[in-house]
Amino acid sequence: MIVLKGAEVSARIKEQVQEMMKGLDGKIPRLAIVRVGERPDDLSYERGAIKKMASFGLEAKSFPFPEDISNQEFQEEFQKINRDPEVSGILLLRPLPKHICEADIEKLIDPRKDLDGISPANIAKVFAGDATGFAPCTAEAVVEVLKANNIPIAGKRAVIVGRSMVVGKPLAMLLMKENATVTVCHTKTADLAGTCRMGEILVAAAGRAKMLDGSYVGDGAVVIDVGINVDDEGKLCGDVDFESIEQKASMATPVPGGVGAVTTAVLARHLVLAAVSAR
Ligand code: NDP
Fold first, then answer.
1. 108/63 Cα distance (integer angstroms)
2. For a pocket test of ligand 1, which of 4, 118, 212, 228 has the largest count of ligand atoms closer than 8 A to its C-beta?
3. One domain for residues 84 and 147
4. Domain that holds residue 103
5. Which terminal CB of the chain, N or C, has fewer other CB atoms within 10 Å?
C-alpha cells in the first residue's frame, strides 16, 4: 500500500501560492482567525494554521473572544473584522458556543473573505459546480490529494462516509464535478461495510476513531482518511484502522500527516485568491 503524504501535496500548493503572490506587488495577505473560547482542538487548529501561513509567507492574526461573549456583541465584533480592509480572508473556528447563532454569522460573512466556504453564496456555488467561490477547505483538500497523486476520479465509484456540511456534502459535489459516481453514507446507511467496499475511492469523514477496518475496504481501493480523533491511548488517529487496511487498499492517507496538512495549504491558497480578487 502506498502512503499518500499530505506534506508533498502541501509543497505543490505552496509553489502555486508563491506564483499567485507575484500578482500582489509585495502586499502580504492577512488571515483573521476568529475564535470564541479556548477549546483545545480550536487552539491546536489555530496554531497549525498560523504556522502554515507563516511557512507560506502569509500573515495570520488570531481574534480570540471570551466564551461568554453575547450573541450581539460577537456579531458586532465579527462585522468589524469582516469590514477591515487589512483582512483578506477569515477563518471562523467552529462549532461556536450554543448561545451564538452560527447561521447569522454564515449570512454575515463577506463571501469574498469566506475562505472556508460557510456562507450561503459559497455553498450554492459548490452545489452548482461553479468554481468561482470558496469550497470548504477540507473537502477541496481531499480532491487535491487525489489530483496531486494522479489518481483518476472520472468514472470511478466514490464512497464517502459522513454527510456534514463541512466535509461529506460539499465533497460529494466536488467529486461529482470531477465525474465520479458518488455514494454518501451516514449513521442510517444499511450495510455500511458492504457499501464502503464498493468504493474505488473511499473517503472516511465520520469522526469515529479507527471505525473503518479492512472489512470496509474493497481490493485496491484508494482510502482518504479525513477523521481527526484521539484513540484510547490519547494518540491522534483517523477514522481508518490504518494497519488493518494495508493488505486491501492500494493507497491511503495517514493520520496525522495526511489530509490535515493539505487542508491548511488549501486555506492559504484561498487567502491569496481572496487578496488577488480584492485588488
Ligand atoms: P460531523 O460529526 O459533523 O459529521 C459526521 C458524519 O459522519 C455524520 O454525517 C454522521 O452521520 C456520520 N457518521 C458518524 N458516525 C457514523 C457511523 N458509525 N456510521 C456511519 N456514519 C457515521 O463531523 P465533521 O464532518 O465535522 O468531521 C468528520 C471528521 O473529520 C472528524 O473526525 C473531524 O475531526 C474531521 N475533520 C478533519 C478536518 C481536516 O482538516 N482533516 C477538518 C474538518 C473535520 P449522521 O449524519 O447520520 O449523523
1. 17
2. 228
3. no
4. 26-117
5. C
